[in-house]
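Quick start: read one record
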Amino acid sequence: MSWTPSRRRPEAVTTSRGGHRRAPSRDVVASATGAAVYSLALSTASVALPLLALDAGYSATAVGALTAVSAVSQMSVRMVLGVVMRRWPDWTLVAGAALTLAISNGIAAFSAAVVPLVLAQLLQGVSRACFWTGSQTHVVRGAGSAAGALATVNFVSSAGLLAGPLLAGLLSEHSPALALAAAGAAALAGVVPTLLLDRLPPFAPPADRPPGRLWRRPGVDVGCWAGVTAGAWRGLLTSYVPVALAAASQTPATIGTLVAVANGASLVGSAGAGRVPRHRSARALVAGMLATGISTALTAVLAPFAWPSALVLGISGVAAGALQVLGPATAAESVHPEERGEAIAASGTFRAAALFAAPLAAAGLVAVLPLAPAVGLVGAAMTLPAAAMRRRRPVAEPA
């Protein structure tokens, strides 16, 4: 039986005489603006919070524990968002996430005591989960390719992720609390674009919903495995990749440049993924998983050499950026339109779990192995989801 999506936003207005180009709708502009502002606020806070803790006298171990609080909070919230979006519209999650991030940054800027910092990290994790799940879900409910819509969100958010650390560094020269205050103001400003989003209703799962857990369905499982590889890459990039480069005697400036290369390459990968035809997405996912894992495994080995390191980090960034788009897009397009929110949430939960687990696994291996082999093993493990693709059944069209 064929189906027709029942709740799609209106098409954008045609701007050219030939009708081939369309002006972005208010909803698209609001989604993109909100993602850019939010990512700017989040990336600023992600740098300023550890600096604030270190400035207040906390140890590196304590800073790591505080960061883990945010990761666990994010993962826990993502697990229930599929149910939440059956009760509340996705735009309310996006608006609430921006407001929650503003509160989180405000609390940390006000006090660096233990309880305020833990509360700030908890709220940041809640905000991350709600914003990315809500914003991604919102854009894939429109007409057109889910991958194209997600590529747009990831592209504009990546611009904020690149600018935020620079802003945090500049303001933290005066005070990390000032950087957090600026991040809070940016997050508060990010509430405004969310008020212009289309008021799409909550999801109403179909009466003939197949039995079993949604993440095990063909297509959704692929999106979840892609999230594992992409999340593990991001987790290592923000933890043991810089450590490996530093251990190889690279200067701080070189380390920052190499991480920026990886982030910039991720931006390119996200943008390019929107152009991958759906019938080629399975091959692209397998290639992305293999390229991400292998190049990440080589990072620690090649860490003493700047140019080879830039090459493998660039390859891993492009591949991981593509996975961040194609994974959730495949999951969303494999289910009934009224189950897309739950599919996006499932993919995001796996990504959040890997974001937390990969650095933890590396930490355990470093206790018994040298750094390079430890990072290499975790990178090799990131290719394992590609093996799951071999057992993948063909994805059926939703009925």
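The domain at 214-393 is CATH 1.20.1250.20 (Growth Hormone; Chain: A;).
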